[in-house]
Fold this sequence. Notes:
The complex is a heterodimer. Helices cover 28% and strands 32% of the residues of chain A. In chain A, α4 packs antiparallel against α5 and α6 crosses α7. Chain B has one domain. In chain B, 73% of the residues lie in helices and 0% in strands. Chain B contains 21 helices and no strands. Chains A and B meet through α3, α4, α5, α6 and α8 of A and α5, α6, α10, α16 and α17 of B.
Amino acid sequence: MKKIKxxxxxxxxxxxxxxxxxxxxxxxxxxxxxxxxxxxxSFSDNRGxxxxxxxxxxxxxxxxxxxxxxxRDFFVVVPDLKIDGSWYDVCAIELMTPMxxxxxxxxxISPINQSYESNFGYDFDTGxxxxxxxxxxxxxxxxxxxxxxxxxxxxxxxDSNSASIKSIRFIHGNFFEKIKAWxxxxxxxxxxxxxxxxxxxxxxxxxxxxxxxxxxxxxxxxGGSIVVYALLYFIKIxxxxxxxxxxIFILVILLVWxxxxxxxxxxxxxxxxxxxxxxxxxxxxxxxxxxxxxxEFIDFMKFVDENIPLRARVFNHIAYxxxxxxxxxxPENQFNYNLRPRLESFYQFSHEIPKRYYVVYxxxxxxxxxxxxxxxxxDAYLSLKPGQTLRQKVVxxxxxxxxxxxxLDLKGAGTNLEVKILDKDGVKIIADGxxxxxxxxxxxxxLINKNRYTDSRTFVELKNHGRAIIExxxxxxxxxDTGLQDNSGSLFLNGAKKKEALxxxxxxxxxxxxxxxxxxxxxxxxxx
Amino acid sequence: MMYIYLFIALILVLLLGLVVVDFMDKKRGLxxxxxxxxxxxxxxxxxxxxxxxxxxxxxxxxxYIVGAIIAILFIFRRxxxxxxxxxxxxxxxxxxxxxxxxxxxxxxxxxxETASKPEYTWDACVHWTYPGNIIYQLDQDKYSGIxxxxxxxxxxxxxxxxxLPYMHYWLFSWMGEVNDQWSNIYLPISLVCFLVLFYFNLxxxxxxxxxxxxxxxxxxxxxxxxxxxxxxxxFSIGIYFSxxxxxxxRWVCEKDELYFWIFxxxxxxxxWIKFEGKPMIVLGLLLLLSYLWLNKKxxxxxxxxxxxxxxxxxLIGLPWQLLLHFNSVPSDERFRLHLNFVGNIHADLYNKLFxxxxxxxxxxxxxxxxxxxxxQFFKEENKYLLFAIFLFYFAIVSVYLVTDSYxxxxxxxxNRTLLIIYPVxxxxxxxxxxxxxxx
Lengths: 528, 439
C-alpha cells in the first residue's frame, strides 16, 4: 500500500514538470533560432585591407594570420571598414594568444570621435592560451558605437609577444548571441591593479551595477521591516508575517549575491589560468618585471645591487614618470625594495663620509640635486630673541662642497639671521649661510665660503643679530617616515639643551660626479 | 630543494603551535582540525616573538637552532592528533558538498595568486616584506641588535610592529634567498586555519550546513579574499582579532579556561602585528570587563582575569612598545581633535561599506540581519558579539576624531581597517540568524 501511495505522489509532479520543461525549451529554442545577420572579415582572405603596428611582423598560413610583436605597439587595424554601427550590436573576434586571459582592446572610429582614443573602445580578455577563442563583445554598451563606423583597431594583447587572428565578425545578433556577448563582458578577466589593495577594484560590477541597483531597494526593505516591527508593537498582528517577509528578503539578497558570486568564481578560475600561463616557469626576476610592468627597471636595479658595494651610501635619482604603476611607485617603493640594504645609506655608523653612489634612471645627465636631510615637520616655534644663539647638531651626508642650501621655517625677518655651519668642536666655521630666498613656507640660505671637513658631525648655528624676535620652526616629533638620524635632544638655545629638534632641510647639488657604471643611455650609476 | 626547506619552515611553525596548544588543551575540548589550525596561527605569533627576542644578539645558524629546539619539544611532547571526518560534518548533505566546492575554488585562487607573483603591493614592499628582507640581510652580515637598527630605514614607518617581517625573515632564511613570492604563502595557509576555526565555532549550535554556509558568506567578499594574496597586515590582524573574539564568545558560552587564554593571547598578538592592535587591546579589555561586571563576578576573580589578560599583553605586545620608547622612536599617533570630521567619516564609511569597497552583499546582509534579529542580539552570550562590533565602531571613529589618522590619510585605509571586524560580523550573523516560522 505504501509503495502505491508513493508512486501516486510522484505522478502528480511529473506532468506539471514536463509541461514547464516543454514551455522553457520552446521559448529557449525560439530565441536561439531567431535569425541573425553577420558581416565576416577574414584576415587571411582580405590581405591588403588591414595593417599592423610598426615593427610587427606577420605570416599568413591556412586561414589564419600569425603576428609577432617587435616594437612597443601590438595591433591590427582595419582602416576602411564602413559598417552601420546602429545595426550591428555584437562582435566576435577569433583570436589566439600564448598568454591566457591577456588584456585585449577593440577601438573604433565613429562619427563621434575622429581618431582612436582609449575611451572609445571595448576591453576583453583573450581567453584560454594556445587555442583559438571566439571573443564575444557587446557593442551596445558603448554609446558612441552608432552611425558609420569607419575603422576598427584590435590590440591583440598586453603581455603576449605573439598572437594569431582569424576573423572579426560584426553581428546583428539574436537573443542567444546577445547573451554570449553579455556574458563575455560580465565575466571578463583583468589583472588586479596596484591601487586595488585600498579599494579593491575587482570585480567592478560589485561597485556599479549590483550596488546601484540594490542600494535603494535595500533601504526601502530595511525601512519597511522597521515599520512592520512598529506595527507589530502597536497592533497585535501575527509575527509570522514579518518573519516570512524577512526570510524572503534575505533569500533575495542571497540569491542575487549567490549568482554574482558564481561570476566571481569564474573570475577566480580565470585568474588561476592566467597566473599559471603568465608566471609559472619564469625566474623571480622575470616575474618581478611582469608584475611591476617594467622589466628594464628591475634588471637595472639588479645591476645596481651587484655593482655598488655594500658599505656605500646610495642616493636615489630615479625619475618619477617612469612607472606604469603610478607616479612614485619606482622611486619611492621599488628602489629600496630591489636593493640589499646599504646601512650607510640610512644611518651614520662612522664619522667619515663613505663613498657615495648616485643611481640615475629615466633621465640623461640630470643635475644631481636632492634632499640631504628632511626634518621639516614643524610642530611649534621657538622664539629667538635679539642676540640669542641657537645650535643644532647635524650629521652631514654629503661633502660640504656638494651641500647647496639650508631651509628653515621662520616667522620674522630672515635678513637678521646669521647662519653658520661649525665643525664638530663648535668653534671652527666651515660654511656661512647667505640669505637666498624667502618663501611662504621656507626661508632658504645658500651655503658659501665652504671649507673641507673630515668629520660629518657638525653644528648649524643660528644667531639673531636684529632687534626683533625671530620665530624658528621646531619639531617636537621628528618625522618617523624619514628614517634618518634622530636629531632630537641635540638642540641648544644659548647653551641650554632643548627637547625638540630644529625643523630644517638640507639640499645638495653634486659637483663633478664621476661615471661609475652604465646600464644604458638613461640608466647608470655616478659616484663621488 | 628550496620548496623542501620552505615546507620544513612551515611545518616547524605548526609544530611549535601544536606543542603550545597541546599544553593548554589538557581537557581535549578542541577538535583535531581546530588544534592544527590554532597551532599554525599561534605558531606564527610565538615563533616571530622568539626570533625577535633572539635577534638582539647574533646567533650563527639561528633559524636552524630554533627549528631543532621546536622539533625536540615536539618529540618530547608528542601531541595526539586523530582526524575524524565526522568532526567536519555529520550528515551526508549534497548542499554542504556544493558549498564546500565553491569555497575550494576561492581557496585555490588564493593559493595560486599568492604563489605566482613576487610582492608588488605598495605597503607590503615598504612596511612588511621589506623589513623582513632587511632582517635577513643583517643576519647574513652577522649583525647584533637587529631590532635597534630596524628603526632607521627610510620610507618604512619605524614604529610598526614586526610579526610579518620576522615571519618573512624566517621563511627567507630557510629558503636561503629573498623569495618574496613564496614567503607570502603562509597567508593563504593562515586563511585556511582561520576558516577551520570559524567553521568549527559556528558549527557548535548551528550545525554543519549553516556553518559552511556562513563560511561561504565570509569568503564571498572579494575584498577579504584578495587581501589573503599579498603581504599587507590587515588580513593578519583581522584573523587574529576575530579568533580572539570568537574564542571569547566560546569562553562565555562554555566557561572553559582554555578559551579565555586563547582569547587573551590572540588579542595580544594583534598588537604585535599592526599598530591598530593597541586599540584592539583596549577593546578586548572592555569586553572582558563588561562580561565580569554583568555576571557579577567577585572582585578578586575580576582582578585575576584582568591581570591574566594584561599579562598576555605584557609578554606579547608590550616589549615592542618598550623598545620603541627606549630607542626614542617617534610615533605618528598624535592627539589632535578633529570633531568636525564626524559627518565626513560616516559618509565615507557608508561609501566604503555599500558602494566603493567590493564587499559584495555582505554588509547589506549584515545590516539587514542585525536590524531584523535585534532580539537575538541581546540574548545571553550574543550581546558580547554586539559589544565587540560597537566597541570597534567607537574605537575607529574615536581614533579618527582625536588623532591625525583620518586627516592625513582620508579614507584610504578605511576599507582595510574594516577587515579587522569583518569576520566577527559574519560570525555574529551566523549566530543570530535563526528562523522558526512556526512561532
